[in-house]
Write a structure and sequence with these properties.
alpha+beta; 133 residues; disordered C terminus
């Protein structure tokens, strides 16, 4: 399990930035995952006039094929973007009672994300050291 090695915050699990177009579905909400860990995720979505459209206690993590994941909403905050008429919000949720299969899928996904990020960082450092930038 990917635990937070720094332990400098309340979070127990290390968060990984999600890849592009990583979708989460909660009720009638469709969002893009900002970051994810074994303990939960944060995602952006466009607020609409649908009252409590996403106020369910379950969600679907599209790239992992995980459906009906039980959650607890931690917070739901407005995101202020310059020159945008969209009402974007950031919702943070905690995963509850993951099955063994869901936890395995999540861990594999997170390892893949952290490996990809590590390779990008190493490649960038190598290019900078070679003076090719």
């Amino acid at each position: 399990m990917l635990r937070n090695p720094l332990n400098d915050e309340r979070r127990v699990f290390l968060r990984c930035p999600a890849g592009p177009a990583t979708l989460v579905l909660q009720g009638q909400l469709v969002g893009l995952i900002k970051d994810i860990s074994c303990g939960g995720c944060a995602f952006h979505y466009v607020a609409s006039d649908l009252k409590d459209a996403g106020a369910t206690d379950r969600l679907t993590l599209e790239p992992l094929g995980m459906q009906e994941v039980r959650i607890r909403m931690v917070d739901d905050l407005p995101v202020h973007k310059k020159n945008s008429s969209l009402h974007v919000r950031l919702r943070r949720v905690q995963f509850l009672d993951l099955t063994a299969m869901q936890m395995r899928r999540l861990q594999v996904y997170l390892r893949r994300l952290s490996t990809a990020g590590h390779q990008e960082n190493n490649h960038g450092s190598q290019v900078a050291m070679n003076g090719s930038l």
